[in-house]
Design goal:
Elements lengths: L2 H5 L3 H36 L22 H4 L2 H33 L3 H11 L1 H4 L2 H12 L4 H9 L12 H25 L3 H9 L4 H29 L3 H7 L6 H10 L4 H32 L1
Helix pairs in contact: 2-14, 4-9, 4-11, 7-12, 9-11, 9-12, 10-11, 11-14, 13-14
């Protein structure tokens, strides 16, 4: 008998371990099946219907016209581009702010102070989304808190009202989604061994070089995870664009919401949602290939 065969557990024990693993996974994946895949499957079928299948006794008629909305209604292309710009700006700003914050949290804080910083990081999760967004309207509006503070310093300065503008939407979205980037980057940065950084420093590397050649490549998994967690919901967001953007806050999220709640055109709303999902998957496929090559080079 080989040593490997002697070390492997008997078949009955492996079967019990398999059953235990399945029992632990079943509640989570059973819930995902019910709460995610079944509703998405229903919406995917709706996207091929000609009319909303509620309140009518007419037979169901299937069509692909809903997926031609970007061709038949060219203004939707501009709306989709606005949503993608929001996604890129929000994700980029969250990465620029989140990675240094995660680095400081992992390397420069300890004990109770780190717990306090963690608490401040997840604080946006504890506040109601509408309260958070309307609080920004008090800050960004003409004659708001930011204007008042500015006039205390420069009495003759004009208003810097940002409310109902593209930057106002980005500010609200960054506030909402920055914790995701900090937490994912923290997990990546915290797993970097101190010996790697000490070795780079002992070879004469300065701080920028250590960051570019050691920390950033090893933090890429956290950056990628955070980017996915942020980019996808941002391009479908509708509360921040509607409240902070006003008339210019027309995004795919607000258009899809209008189709479900105002126009009662569920098939078109579903088709627009899946069209944007396809665009997001294409973007991720392009970026993942580029990032995979970058990580292999590193």
């Amino acid at each position: 008998m080989t040593s490997a065969g002697a070390a492997s557990p008997p078949r009955s024990q492996r079967a019990r371990q398999g059953l235990s693993t399945a029992g632990l996974l079943l509640p989570a994946y059973g819930w995902l099946l019910l709460a995610v895949f079944l509703p998405l499957g229903a919406m995917f079928i709706f996207s091929f219907l000609k009319t909303t299948p509620f309140g009518s006794s007419k037979p169901l008629v299937f069509t692909i016209q809903n997926y031609l909305a970007f061709v038949n209604r060219p203004y939707l292309v501009d709306v989709a581009w606005t949503s993608l710009q929001l996604g890129f700006w929000t994700t980029g700003l969250c990465a620029l702010i989140g990675l240094p914050a995660a680095l400081a949290l992992s390397r420069a804080t300890k004990g109770r102070f780190r717990q306090v910083v963690f608490l401040l990081t997840i604080l946006p999760f504890w506040t109601n989304g509408l309260v958070r967004i309307f609080s920004w309207t008090m800050l960004l509006r003409e004659g708001g808190i930011i204007d008042a503070l500015l006039h205390l310093v420069v009495p003759g300065a004009g208003s810097i009202s940002l409310l109902y503008s593209f930057p106002a939407i980005v500010i609200g979205l960054v506030h909402a989604y920055l914790p995701y980037m900090i937490l994912t980057c923290y997990l990546a940065v915290d797993s970097i061994e101190d010996g790697l950084i000490d070795a780079a420093r002992s070879l004469g590397a300065r701080a920028p070089t250590v960051f570019a050649t050691v920390i950033l490549p090893l933090a890429l998994p956290g950056l990628i995870s955070g980017s996915i967690l942020i980019f996808v919901p941002v391009i479908g967001s509708f509360m921040e664009p509607r409240i902070l953007g006003g008339r210019i806050g027309v995004t795919m999220g607000t258009v899809v919401e209008d189709q479900f709640t105002q126009a009662y055109n569920w098939p078109l709303g579903s088709a627009l949602s899946f069209s944007m999902l396809a665009v997001v998957l294409v973007i991720f496929a392009i970026f993942s290939r580029a990032l995979r090559g970058r990580m292999l080079d590193a």
